[in-house]
Write a sequence for this structure.
């Protein structure tokens, strides 16, 4: 019985194959026997294909990917009116921050916007601004902004170059401000910039894990503790800048001098400061590597002026001493040096760097030497476009240990 | 077996076929029989002009976004994924017919130095006097705008950017001449200069910003001039590109076909003149190859609307970009390449590629452009281009012959139109182009059997020319050439040997005595080099002649069959 079934199945398969073969061959013969094609020339053959396409020709419809990319492309080059996501910082050390805003373009190139930001450390900010041109790319740039910000847990470690991370205390700094700013570019490589602002500071007990500032420090070791100064704050900068862009560059340099004036309305905490900064990017072997160097000095001009602790020159942050938290070292004068060896795995989007930062704060300008510098080293990756750093991820190691940096701007 | 659809008598490669084996065999049989019905050669072969038989007036303007075009080409492989596909717009003698894509000029005919100097230009440039600005420039990074001159001619004006004079406009002038001579549709381009006070703004001129249109103002115009390079006399050097005839409908992609153009039936990646940009691009360092630098227009041709295809912007060539000299990696590496990126990432940049140590004789008007270390096979544009991905040795040979057809004098004539202010710059550019031309010939003539100009005379003598030997690139084959002669059945495509193979030390081969001579007969001759200096020359070139009017006419030439593996790698 079993054998009979097998034989029967085999027979059925064989018959099916024969039928299939016959059908296929018959189909082939029938196909071959069709009258010869109508085309007698090559031109006719081509024409036939074009005629066939003409029957189905239809305008192109972009797919979803193309439509989205096109919209993004346009909004990047020339953003539209309306709501927008805001990526910025409320105050250095505020941690991951997100926000949203609304803007309206008017006139030839002007824009006004209003935006709000909030960080994971409960830092917050609201600001209204108006400027022209909107992309800051004109020979002249003029703007006004006013707003309020609240930094709830600003770290303070005392004044001086030898403070300890264990001495951290937090203070809360609130600031209302209104500022007008103007920039002028006399030539492609020269910059003039000036701002004048009215600022009201309010300092309070700090939030967060560290103790509040008043529990460790007092008004004798911490100038301006719980003071609420109101300033007319003016800044003037003159610079030579031949970098590709401040946001991302592999060559060029920046050499600038900035004069800062804080005039206290009550004349208690008025002071003036002079900052000098040199940045040089040295490409090596067709930008296979870039050595980037920076030196910056900040100096309070009059030894008799009292500078509130939160306005003292400070070191420590993702753009100064990168293994140290924001404001780790403060004093009346500060010296900062940075050196990076960058290599470029992908010229279109990825830089790597190993870096070394060293800096010092001092009570007197003559103490601002290279002895006793605080320093750190580290490694980082930067994802960038032609003129902007989109994301900078760095790990830095100093005497306080490891510190991670997440930033959306160039280090310098 | 299914046959790939080809246009001008060039048969395609096999495709895979799923399904029951028997049915497949049956269908193959049917297809084979069907194929027998189509002659290999039609009476009008070889086609000299690609026909456009359908009305294309309904073709609509489309926008090919810069970013999606870049992302798709950089990270995917758009277009046909099959490899080793023979170009599909060539005629039966392996040439590209004239079309609305391409016009045979250099090599196909004598092109005088005067013609090269004039290029696509048909008039003397913008009329002197005031220009009326019609609209701002909407594409590209260099400053510019669209104007109408006092004679009513529309011009696209492009300036040298501030701080980078001469080079960007000079490049447009020179490259336009070279690509015109190579056969591409080019924009008429004239070197000119303009003073801001001679530009008026049309009342209808608007600018699109932030999703809205607003009037274009004098301040906008000042901003354009602010970005342009001002000469000491207050004028601005510019290239005026004449408005193209017809209705612009956007660019073309280097893959697929335009869906609303009924005459566009050959996938662009299989068009030889587009594949050939691998070679022409290498010669001129045309790195910025993208849809955004092309333009299609609907024009009237013989009473019918057809689409004409322009390589509209060939200004990213030689050593110069639109705003600055080229970066060192351009022409050597795609914007993103995974392997080198990873190697550089993990070696702190110690993975060094040749371009990083290459020597350049840099001139501010030329930028980074050199010929001594140039390797045409290693050249690449900024992003992978589908048409270039499909290029084969026969395409590159076709292109190399055109590059090699430029004489030193013609190259220097084209370069002289750039308006370089320093004669040393002009000399440097021409010298480099000449060096690169020779390298292209040397490389691509060795990659495939380089025999051309086949003719069969009345006495049965087949003559041809080895272009590599003719160019002085090396020795002839030690044992000369061998030909296998066959009678060819145009209906069944079967070849029946005639006599024994014949051999010769030179570029003449005598046919066997029993060569048929009746009218309408087809003969196939397979010619190969014997003991050649390059292994690729041992692969025969198949040529086909038909007897017509008492004489032999060349009707077919096949240097590399569809789907056939490329010949053995040549020695460089």
């Amino acid at each position: 019985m079993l054998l009979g079934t097998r034989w029967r199945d085999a027979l059925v398969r064989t018959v099916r194959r024969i039928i299939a073969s016959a059908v296929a061959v018959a189909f082939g013969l029938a196909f071959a026997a069709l009258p010869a094609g109508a085309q007698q020339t090559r031109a006719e053959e081509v024409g036939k294909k074009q005629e066939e396409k003409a029957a189905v020709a239809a305008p192109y419809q972009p797919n979803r990917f193309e439509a989205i990319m096109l919209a993004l492309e346009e909004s990047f080059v020339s953003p539209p009116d309306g709501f927008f996501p805001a990526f910025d910082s409320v105050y250095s050390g505020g941690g991951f921050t997100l926000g949203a805003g609304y803007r309206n373009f008017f006139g030839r190139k002007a824009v006004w916007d209003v935006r709000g930001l909030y960080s994971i450390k409960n830092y917050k900010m609201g600001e209204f601004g108006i400027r022209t041109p909107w992309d800051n790319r004109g020979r002249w740039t003029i703007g006004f902004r006013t707003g309020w910000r609240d930094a709830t847990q600003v770290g303070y470690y005392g004044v001086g170059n030898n403070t300890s991370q264990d001495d951290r205390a937090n203070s809360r700094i609130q600031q209302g401000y209104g500022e007008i700013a103007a920039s002028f570019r006399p030539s492609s490589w020269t910059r003039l910039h000036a701002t004048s602002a009215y600022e009201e500071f309010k300092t309070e007990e700090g939030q967060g894990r560290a103790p509040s500032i008043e529990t460790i420090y007092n008004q004798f070791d911490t100038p301006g503790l719980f003071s609420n100064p109101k300033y007319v704050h003016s800044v003037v900068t003159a610079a030579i800048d031949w970098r590709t862009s401040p946001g991302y560059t592999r060559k060029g340099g920046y050499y600038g001098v900035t004069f800062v004036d804080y005039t206290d309305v009550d004349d208690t905490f008025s002071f003036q400061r002079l900052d000098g900064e040199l940045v040089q990017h040295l490409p090596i072997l067709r930008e296979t590597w870039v050595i980037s160097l920076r030196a910056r000095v900040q100096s309070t001009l009059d030894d008799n002026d009292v500078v509130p602790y939160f306005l003292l020159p400070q070191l420590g942050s993702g753009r100064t001493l990168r293994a140290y938290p924001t404001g780790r070292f403060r004093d009346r004068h500060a010296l900062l040096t940075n050196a990076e060896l960058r290599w470029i795995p992908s010229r279109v989007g990825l830089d790597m760097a190993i870096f070394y930062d060293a800096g010092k704060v001092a009570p007197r300008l003559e103490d601002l030497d290279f002895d006793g510098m605080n320093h750190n080293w580290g490694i980082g990756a930067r994802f960038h476009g032609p003129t902007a750093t989109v994301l900078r991820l760095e790990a830095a190691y100093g005497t306080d240990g490891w510190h991670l940096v997440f930033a959306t701007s160039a280090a310098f | 077996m299914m046959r790939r659809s080809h246009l001008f008598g060039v048969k395609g490669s096999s495709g895979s076929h799923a399904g029951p084996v028997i049915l497949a065999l049956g269908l193959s049989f049917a297809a084979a029989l069907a194929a027998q019905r189509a002659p290999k050669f039609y009476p009008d072969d070889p086609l000299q002009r690609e026909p456009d038989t359908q009305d294309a007036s309904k073709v609509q303007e489309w926008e090919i976004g810069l970013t999606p075009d870049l992302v798709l080409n950089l990270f995917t492989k758009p277009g046909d994924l099959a490899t080793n596909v023979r170009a599909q717009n060539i005629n039966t003698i392996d040439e590209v017919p004239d079309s609305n894509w391409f016009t045979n000029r250099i090599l196909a005919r004598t092109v005088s130095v005067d013609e090269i100097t004039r290029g696509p230009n048909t008039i003397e440039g913008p009329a002197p006097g005031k220009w009326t600005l019609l609209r701002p420039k909407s594409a590209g990074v260099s400053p510019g705008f669209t104007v109408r001159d006092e004679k009513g001619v529309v011009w696209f004006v492009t300036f040298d950017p501030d701080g980078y004079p001469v080079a960007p406009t000079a490049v447009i002038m020179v490259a336009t001449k070279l690509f015109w001579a190579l056969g591409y549709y080019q924009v008429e381009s004239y070197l000119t200069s303009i003073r801001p006070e001679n530009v008026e703004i049309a009342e209808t001129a608007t600018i699109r910003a932030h999703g809205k249109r607003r009037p274009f103002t004098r301040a906008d115009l000042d901003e354009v001039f602010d970005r342009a390079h001002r000469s000491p006399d207050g004028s601005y050097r510019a290239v005026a590109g004449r408005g193209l005839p017809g209705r612009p409908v956007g660019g073309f992609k280097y893959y697929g076909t335009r869906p609303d153009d009924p005459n566009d039936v050959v996938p662009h990646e299989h068009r030889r003149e587009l594949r050939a940009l691998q070679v022409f691009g290498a010669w001129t360092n045309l790195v910025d190859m993208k849809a955004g630098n092309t333009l299609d227009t609907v024009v009237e041709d013989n009473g019918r609307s057809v689409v004409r295809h322009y390589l509209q912007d060939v200004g990213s060539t030689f050593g110069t970009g639109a705003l600055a000299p080229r970066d060192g990696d351009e022409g050597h590496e795609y914007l993103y390449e995974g392997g080198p990126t990873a190697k550089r990432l993990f070696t702190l940049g110690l993975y060094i590629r040749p371009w990083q140590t290459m020597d350049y004789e840099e001139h501010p008007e030329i930028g980074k452009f050199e010929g001594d270390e140039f390797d045409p096979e290693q050249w690449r544009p900024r992003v992978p281009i589908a048409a270039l991905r499909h290029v084969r040795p026969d395409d590159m040979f076709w292109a190399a012959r055109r590059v090699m057809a430029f004489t030193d004098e013609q190259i220097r004539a084209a370069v002289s139109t750039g308006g370089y202010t320093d004669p040393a710059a002009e000399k440097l550019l021409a010298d480099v182009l000449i060096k690169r031309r020779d390298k292209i010939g040397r490389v691509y003539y060795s990659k495939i059997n380089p025999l051309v100009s086949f003719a069969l005379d009345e006495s049965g003598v087949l003559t041809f020319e080895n272009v590599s030997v003719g160019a002085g690139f090396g020795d002839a084959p030690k044992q000369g050439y061998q030909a296998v002669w066959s009678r060819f059945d145009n209906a069944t495509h079967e070849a029946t040997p005639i006599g024994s193979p014949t051999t010769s030390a030179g570029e003449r081969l005598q046919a066997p005595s029993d060569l048929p001579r009746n009218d309408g007969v087809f003969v196939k001759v397979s010619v190969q080099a014997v003991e050649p200096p390059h292994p690729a020359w041992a692969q025969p070139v198949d040529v086909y002649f038909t007897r017509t009017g008492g004489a032999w006419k060349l009707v077919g030439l096949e240097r590399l069959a569809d789907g056939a593996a490329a010949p053995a790698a040549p020695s460089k």
Remarks:
- Residues 1 and 32 of chain B are 8 Å apart (CA to CA).
